[in-house]
From TrEMBL:
UniProt KW keywords: Repeat
Organism: Erythranthe guttata (Yellow monkey flower)
Compositionally biased tracts (Basic and acidic residues): 192-201
InterPro entries in the record: C1-like_sf, DC1
Pfam (any one): C1_2
Region named Disordered: 174-239
Domain DC1: 9-55, 64-111, 124-170
The protein, known as: DC1 domain-containing protein
Keyword presence, Repeat: yes
Residue ranges, compositional bias (Acidic residues): 174-191
Superkingdom of the organism of origin: Eukaryota
Length: 269
């Protein structure tokens, strides 16, 4: 990061390079609304801050995932809902985004800059290629992490093994750097217990003929996500219920992130 002040179209004052405090209080980016944990640009008087990547995102770009039109950087989504659905990760965006107004095509700033290839031996023994149009792949895709079928969002893919992981699942791992070995052991034990419990619940669900004829629950809850993960099979009805449950859970999660961010105050060094 260059240690120079910066002007940005989304803020009226000059932004200066700043470092997050050591006190661990969370700083939220006024651009993408995500958390900031490294050097950033900020206006101290207004407590306005931007990730370096958000501050330096170009005003417009050509992106290979949308070759027909250039994408323009919008500081706020221009839809009546003031949100957008990212074509890459399928998650809601409430701040900066690259947008084609003509096609209602939108990308998070971070999603616009994903590595075209990825090699992570823990993930897969071969290099993975970013596929922006998974519908064009001949193999039927199921994400190796969330076990849900492809809904058209981007995946990292190994052609040889037909191995696919949603980009959103690839980058959603919890950071466990702070854990020491003991905590990890305990977590493993807990995971085993959870799996046992889940097996028991699974057999309850599948033994219950009535389960699949129930309508989807009207109030979204995060626990519905784990239920949707347990639902396997190809019957159309099951599939529809699973998709509805997932949508509910994602909406609930997006709402939760929104309110928790608005509650937080930004802290400056
Ligand atoms: Zn940002
Ligand atoms: Zn300011
Ligand atoms: Zn995205
Ligand atoms: Zn377009
Ligand atoms: Zn996935
Ligand atoms: Zn492979």
């Amino acid at each position: 990061m260059k240690h120079v002040n910066k002007r940005h179209f989304s803020h009226e004052h000059v932004l200066v390079p700043l470092e997050p405090d050591d006190d661990g209080e969370e700083i939220t980016c006024n651009g993408c609304k995500g958390e900031i944990d490294e050097q950033f640009y900020g206006c101290i008087d207004c407590k306005f801050c931007l990730h370096e990547d958000c501050a330096e995102a170009p005003r417009s770009m050509e992106h290979p995932s949308h070759p027909s039109h250039p994408l323009a950087l919008h500081a706020t989504p221009t839809y009546p809902s003031q949100t957008f659905c990212c074509a890459a990760c399928g998650k809601v965006g409430k701040g900066f985004g690259f947008s084609c107004a003509h096609c209602s095509f939108d990308l998070h700033v971070s999603c616009s800059d994903m590595a075209p290839t990825l090699f992570d031996e823990d993930e897969h023994p071969h290099g993975l290629k970013l596929v922006c149009e998974p519908d064009k792949l001949t193999a039927e895709l199921v994400c190796n992490k969330c076990c849900l079928p492809n809904e058209g969002y981007w995946v990292y893919y190994c052609e040889t093994c037909k191995f696919a992981v949603h980009v959103s699942c690839m980058y959603s791992d919890d950071d466990d750097d702070d854990n020491d070995g003991k905590e990890e052991e305990e977590e493993e034990k807990k995971e085993e217990e959870d799996q046992k419990k889940e097996k028991a619940i699974n057999s309850e669900i599948f033994d219950n003929e009535e389960f699949f004829s129930l309508p989807p629950p009207s109030s979204p809850s995060l626990s519905s996500l784990s239920i949707s993960r347990r639902i396997q099979g190809t019957e159309r009805e099951k599939d529809q219920i699973a998709r509805q449950l997932l949508r509910d859970a994602l909406n609930a999660a997006a709402d939760y992130v929104g309110t928790s961010h608005t509650r937080r105050r930004n802290k400056f060094p």
